[in-house]
Write a structure and sequence with these properties.
The chain has 3 helices and 14 strands. The protein is α+β, with helices and mostly antiparallel strands. It has a single domain, classed as tt1808, chain A. The strands form 4 sheets. Strands 3-6-9-10-11-12 form a 6-stranded mixed sheet, with helices on both faces. A 4-stranded mixed sheet has the order 5-4-8-7, with no helix packed on it. Strands 1-2 form a two-stranded antiparallel ribbon. Pfam families: Uma2.
C-alpha cells in the first residue's frame, strides 16, 4: 500500500510498507508529518542535539535526531501489534535493550519535539499524553516562534506535573542527567 486511509487502524507492519508521504501512528491512527522542517526548526534541532551529543560522549546513553522510529506498544512488540510509531525530533535512550536496527522499542528516557504550525495539536496534546502514558521521563516542547521551552517531567506518581517554562534567556538543566545544562541563548 502506498498511502494509508484515514479512519482505519494501522500497525508498524503497515507503516513499513508505505512508500510515499511520511506518517506517524498514534494508537493506530495516522498523522501525516509535515514536509521538510523550516530552516529555523533545523537550526534549533541541531543546537540542542549538539549539546546532548557532546555531553553523552563516552556515556552509555545515546541520542538520535529525526527521522528515528520510536515504537510503543502495550502488548507485545511484534510488528502486527505495534500501533504507535513516532519520530521525535530528538530521542535519548539510556537502555541498550531498547535499541535495534530499526530504531527504539519502548519509551525513550528523554524526548524533544520542536513545534511547527502543522504539529501544534500533536505535540502539545497527543504526544504529551502519549509520552506521559508510556513513561518518558522528560519531554520538552520547543516553540521556535515564542522562543520558549515547556519541560514536562514524570513525578513520583508516574505522571507529568505542570510544565516548567523556560524563556530564551534561561538555562535548562536536563533532569535525567547530573550536570547537563542547555543555554537557550545558544539554542534560539
Amino acid at each position: 500500500m502506498a498511502t494509508p486511509i484515514k479512519n482505519q487502524q494501522y500497525t508498524y507492519k503497515d507503516y513499513m510498507n508505505w512508500t510515499e508521504e511520511k506518517y506517524e501512528i498514534i494508537e493506530g491512527e495516522t498523522y501525516m508529518m509535515s514536509p521538510a522542517p523550516s530552516r529555523i526548526h533545523q537550526e534549533i534541532l541541531g543546537n540542542i542535539f549538539f549539546y546532548i551529543k557532546s555531553y553523552l560522549q563516552g556515556k552509555k546513553c545515546k541520542v538520535y535526531a529525526a527521522p528515528f522510529d520510536v515504537r510503543l506498544s502495550k502488548e507485545d512488540y511484534s510488528d502486527e501489534n505495534i500501533k504507535t510509531v513516532v519520530q521525535p525530533d530528538i530521542t535519548v535512550i539510556c537502555d541498550e535493550e531498547k535499541l535495534d536496527d530499526r530504531g527504539a522499542i519502548g519509551a525513550p528516557d528523554f524526548v524533544v519535539e520542536i513545534v511547527s504550525p502543522a504539529s501544534t495539536f500533536i505535540d502539545y496534546v497527543k504526544k504529551l499524553n502519549l509520552y506521559g502514558e508510556y513513561g518518558v521521563k522528560e519531554y520538552w516542547i520547543v516553540d521556535p516562534k515564542d522562543k520558549n521551552v515547556l519541560v514536562y517531567k514524570i513525578d513520583e506518581n508516574g505522571v507529568y506535573g505542570k510544565p516548567e517554562i523556560y524563556e530564551q534567556e534561561n538555562e535548562i538543566k536536563v533532569s535525567i542527567f547530573e550536570d547537563l545544562l542547555i543555554d537557550l541563548r545558544k539554542v534560539f
